[in-house]
Design goal:
alpha+beta; 4-stranded antiparallel beta sheet; 7 helices; 50% helix
């Protein structure tokens, strides 16, 4: 598929680009992904629950899940740029691409390639975006009773987005805004720009 290098064309056609990438990708059932992540999350919770108490347990587990996600994000973005049309990789790595534009394209392509899932990315301003995740990310998930008010099942996705953006030299903070497992009506993450490493080449070019 020929994709024009015009930034607006890339942004407007992100869904089409992602669908083409998904078709060419080796498929992993979404339920398998949920089961694997659920098993990892449960194991870390059991470990920390046996070594800490209360809020310390939750913070340790959430922090560890975020770190796992960060490592995943650093690798996943390489796959996105390798499978996307060359013009998209150039767009993402370009020093002239803005934070909101880079974040929107990368996040949408990442979720589409990984899970064939569509996400909404809404700009709050030039330094902050809200990412609305699919509701089925938390489908059939039950948190332990003693973690229900604190443990965030979405922590790993915070790390994934942080790691992916970091590979493009965007240092960001990603936090959970709303979590359906904690009683909210939708799953949302907030991604805030902290810094841009203008003097460094994106690590994808190394």
């Amino acid at each position: 598929m020929l994709i024009k290098s015009n930034p607006n064309h890339i942004i407007m056609n992100t869904k089409t680009i992602g669908e083409e990438m998904w078709k060419a990708e080796e498929k992993v059932p979404a339920d398998m992904f949920h089961c694997l992540y659920g098993a990892i999350m449960a194991e870390y919770w059991r470990f920390h629950d046996g070594n800490d108490n209360g809020a310390d347990t939750t913070n340790a587990a959430n922090t560890r899940l975020d770190k796992i996600g960060h490592q995943m994000g650093c690798r996943l973005v390489e796959g996105v740029c390798a499978k996307a049309p060359p013009s998209v990789s150039v767009f993402l790595a370009s020093p002239t691409t803005g934070f909101v534009q880079a974040g929107e394209v990368l996040v949408k392509l990442l979720f589409k390639q990984l899970m064939n899932a569509s996400v909404q990315v809404s700009a709050v301003d030039n330094f902050k975006v809200i990412v609305t995740l699919p509701n089925d990310l938390t489908r059939n998930v039950q948190l332990p009773d003693n973690a229900r008010n604190h443990l965030s099942y979405l922590s790993i996705w915070c790390g994934i987005l942080r790691g992916a953006m970091e590979m493009l030299n965007w240092r960001v903070k990603v936090t959970v805004v709303s979590d359906m497992l904690l009683g909210d009506s939708k799953n949302e993450l907030e991604m805030t720009l902290l810094d841009r490493l203008h003097d460094a080449k994106p690590r994808l070019e190394d």
